[in-house]
Amino acid sequence: MEQLGALDASFLYGENERVANHIGGLYIYDQSTVPGGMVRFRQILQYLAARIHRAPRYRQKAVSVPLNLDHPYWVDDSRFDIEYHVRHLALPRPGDWRQLCILASRLHDRPLDLSRPLWTLDVIEGLDNVEGLPPGSFAIVTKLHHAALDGMSAASMNTALHETEPGLRLGTPEPWTPGREPDPMELLGRAHLNNLAQPMRFIQRLAESMPAQARFLAVMGDEAMRSPAPVGPVPVTRFNGAISGRRVVNGISFDLAALKTLKEAVAGVTLNDLMLALGGGALRRYLSARNELPDEPLVTMAPVSTRSRRASGPAAGNEAAAMLASLATDVADPRKRLEAVHASTFSAKALNQAIGNRLLSDYQQFMPAAASSMAARFFAQMRMNSPMRPLFNTVMTNVPGPQHPLYFCGARMVNQYGLGMIQDGEGLFHAILSYDGKLTVTAVSDREMMPDPEFYMSCFRDSFDELNAALMPRPRPARRRKAA
User: CB-based burial of residue 53 (10 Å sphere; 0-12 exposed, 13-18 middle, 19+ buried)?
Assistant: First the structure.
């Protein structure tokens, strides 16, 4: 039995009929690498059952403490049934990319059953008309509650369920006996002891954080006087209102080597800077087409992992801090936009390092569970009923993946797309994933905020093309000399 941290529990507290706090992925597979050229659904069930022990969260559910006197606990689900969580679907003909994105959107709409382990996996066959894929390819759409894991641990869980070599190795499930579920009185007793110890833990954490507070004051007193702030006032866009609960999903793939070549064209720029600049260019085009581009630059929140190596792996929860950066949507020139994004992320990293990425998330642990639950619900209701100036306009999270092929049930993974969560005031999420020489950008938004996700993906492609033209100008052909 393991207790959820305050940040993990906040994702449970913040759920309502429109906000479902799960993340996931869309994975594409070529089953021509499977012996016989076909994977059967029963083989997929056997394959998963033999590997599910690698990710303990798959068989655990969250049990609440009576009266919310403490944060919930992860406990083994005594009625765990893998066939409840793994489902089989098929696209209608012709089985193209648009149909796949629509189905992924509908699956991502649906909240998870909070009384069971917080995940589902949908196998989708019939991808017969997707560009670049052989007929007979299939997809998998996963949903995993954000209370159980963040982007980095989701990537670890994804890797745990794949093989690095081709071949159909189904395996045999390991014996498993679920642990005893605690009764309400036991949970109340634990809550009483935890609450008694909380003041001493807070004093200890306060003492440990004094150096970080001193560094923050020094930066605010000196460095901030010489460097611009990472972001300015955050404008309001169509993505910063109340969401409807109906989602749209679409994605685009880039060649990773081409992106790295672009990155090297400007000194000091990172791949993350480049992707933020591409996102800024895409949003500039999308909002300009609707005469909605604000004068102020849009701001993104980029999650920064604070996970130590000891805490990594598919069983780890959320350990992340927030970095705010400008997307420089007010800058027309693509090169200057990239330079402005780099300057913003450079300042943001300096502030985060001065404060200590873990500081604010560590202090969150000391808010009482009942107060945390009430605050999450009150804040969500307030944001829905009255317009508020957003803290940021969108989320862009960059999670690096393996640069070698992965295999699921013998089928080679062709590509992967991340599925993030949206909330009131935060109606646009970008997941950036790299895998085997490719990098994908997936946009998740509200159907009323973004009724045309295909057009938004074309804005990303155009943003790449204009940045490529600006940073990699083609040499002019040599002039022919006139004959004497």
Answer: middle
169 shares its domain with 237: no
- pLDDT > 50? residue 199: yes
Rounded Cα distance, 157 and 139, in Å: 17
Do residues 106 and 172 share a domain?
Answer: yes
- Say if 228 falls within a structural domain: yes
- Which of 358, 341, 77, 27 shows the shortest CA–CA distance to 208? 358
Gap between the Cα atoms of 27 and 435, Å rounded: 11
For 204-245, how does the pLDDT look when each residue is reduced to its tens digit (9 = 90+)? 444 444 454 554 455 545 544 444 556 778 999 999 999 998
Which is more confident, 149 or 427?
Answer: 427
Does residue 384 sit in the same domain as residue 285?
yes
Domain encompassing residue 162:
2-188
- pTM, two decimal places: 0.85
Within its chain, how far is the Cα of 130 from the centroid?
24
For residues 479 and 144, what is the distance between their CA atoms, to the nearest angstrom? 60
Bridge partners of 138? 29
Instruction: State how far the Cα of 441 lies from the Cα of 465, in Å rounded to an integer.
Output: 15
Q: Are residues 183 and 215 in the same domain?
A: no
Q: What is the pLDDT of residues 3-33, one digit of tens each?
A: 998 888 889 988 888 999 999 999 999 999 9
Domains of the chain: total: 2
Active-site residues, by number, are: 146
Amino acid letter, residue 58: Y
Q: How would you class 382 by CB atoms within 10 Å of its CB: exposed for 0-12, middle for 13-18, buried for 19 or more?
A: exposed
> Rounded to whole angstroms, how far apart are CA atoms 351 and 280?
22
